[in-house]
């Protein structure tokens, strides 16, 4: 896949998406937002991809939304009618929201490997991922508050479910930078690593562990978890009963049983 602002590779069933504007601290311009959506739509549809890792090129994961992009958007949405201007802005916001929801929508698990700064839109992006890892020098900030914007691309909708009410509100109300140690303490990240090399190695090791499991089962686990987050326990139980009743008889299940009897590692094909 060829993109302007990200690189996408696929190796051993692991898709790697790398934000690739290092000269701009991976500031997220309009092309990058759309490239992210296209990349994760491609990963979702590619049967060879079983898990994805998203990382950043250069010194920082991302400095967030590109301010030049914001300035450029204003003339494009302007209309003589104030109501139409505001409707144009609403449509732009909804489109940008969807570029990150594509990560959540992707049936494959997504691991965010964060180093350096993760600011504004970067927090929107990482909260749409399934798992977050970071370096000891990583910082997270809902910086929109500092520049007179209510964060509108997913952070405020997803963060509380990850870190709880109190810490989510602290981050959102203050807009301050949260260091890796506190991010780990409150569950924003699963683990913290000394440097970027260790981080990327750990992210890949985790991705390989996920990729070694039956791909259709892993995808099912993600979808059931997402459903259960938004429904009652009883509704979640009914959903998984329906899910397994429809999908349990797969070749990978037979392979798991055979491998157990033969005392060997199973080889799952996604059948």
Structure, described:
Strands 1-2-3-4-6-9 form a six-stranded mixed sheet, with helices on both faces. Strands 5-7-8 form a three-stranded mixed sheet. The longest helix has 24 residues, at 82-105. The model has no long low-confidence stretch (mean pLDDT 93). The chain has 271 residues and is of the alpha/beta class. The radius of gyration is 20 Å and the shape is globular. α1 (30-45) packs parallel to α3, α5 (155-163) crosses α6 (165-174) and α9 runs antiparallel to α10. It has helices spanning 30-45, 67-77, 82-105, 121-127, 155-163, 165-174, 180-185, 196-211, 215-229, 233-247, 251-262; strands at residues 6-11, 14-19, 51-56, 110-114, 117-119, 131-135, 139-141, 178-179, 191-193.
Summarize the structure.
This protein has 271 residues and is an alpha/beta fold. It contains eleven helices and nine strands.
Show unreliable segments.
Answer: none
Order of helices and strands, N to C?
Answer: EEHEHHEEHEEHHEHEHHHH
Which term fits the overall shape?
globular
Strand order of the largest sheet: 1-2-3-4-6-9
Secondary-structure content class: alpha/beta
Radius of gyration: 20 Å
What's the helical proportion of residues?
40-55%
Q: Major sheet, described briefly?
A: 6 strands, mixed
How confident overall, as mean pLDDT?
Answer: 93
Strand content: 5-15%
The helix tally amounts to: 11
Give the strand tally.
Answer: 9
Distance N to C terminus: 25 Å
Give the helix/strand layout:
Elements: E1 6-11, E2 14-19, H1 30-45, E3 51-56, H2 67-77, H3 82-105, E4 110-114, E5 117-119, H4 121-127, E6 131-135, E7 139-141, H5 155-163, H6 165-174, E8 178-179, H7 180-185, E9 191-193, H8 196-211, H9 215-229, H10 233-247, H11 251-262
Parallel strand pairs: 2-3, 3-4, 4-6, 5-7, 6-9
Antiparallel strand pairs: 1-2, 7-8
